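Milestone M4 deliverable, item 7.
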Amino acid sequence: MLVDITPIILTYNEAANIGRSLERLTWAHEVVIVDSGSTDETLAIAARFPNARVVHRPFDSHAQQWRFAVEETGVTTDWVLRLDADYMLEPALRDELAPLKADADIAAYEIAFTYCIEGRPLRGSLYPALPVLFRRGRASFVQDGHTEKLRIDGQVRRLRNRLLHDDRKSLERWLQSQARYQAYEAEKLSTRPWAELGWADRLRCTRVLGPPAVALHCLFGKGLIFDGKAGLLYTAQRITADLILSMHLLRRDLDRLVPGKTSR
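Output delivered:
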């Protein structure tokens, strides 16, 4: 199976992560990196890996970037491994992939994540399992808030081993990203019919219940209160993200009270 998989990574200023990710992908004949204008050492680090090929494309949306990456970069393998630069594929997962012999009706494999804070794995997180490995031609990308969702045409099976999510970028970068991401999430929640929202998004739409619900779920539902400062930092990040979302939703509420004013 490994010879029939092309890992693809989207990058923008991922110097803190890209080297560690590529070190775990030396088994791949080719790793395609679609970069949207990095100004740090991302590309210099990628150039150290002979199996990495960089393609440049200005960023417009995650869905469009992934469509381009899969369909217009010359990938020829049947399978694509869809990775962020902070996803780390450990040897156990590689060894699980190697002997796979997928039936024709299997279109994707879903993989769960172990979330890490500064390299320390947490016992749980809010990060969902995703169809990371999929068959080309059997998947399509749609924009969903600040990110993309993958729609799969066919069966999806779950792999036993996990990917690591281990982002080492700065807290300042994380906060900047969340300010942008949660604006998109507020747009999504404000325009989507109530019946289509899950219970978590319905709590967020109250503007006030989301942050405390996240705190309780992380600390006690996921057991992160037992993960020391790493667990507390992750919980604080998730509370902060929900607080930013609440601020965006409240801003949209206030803007609607002013004639002719559009939300921002």
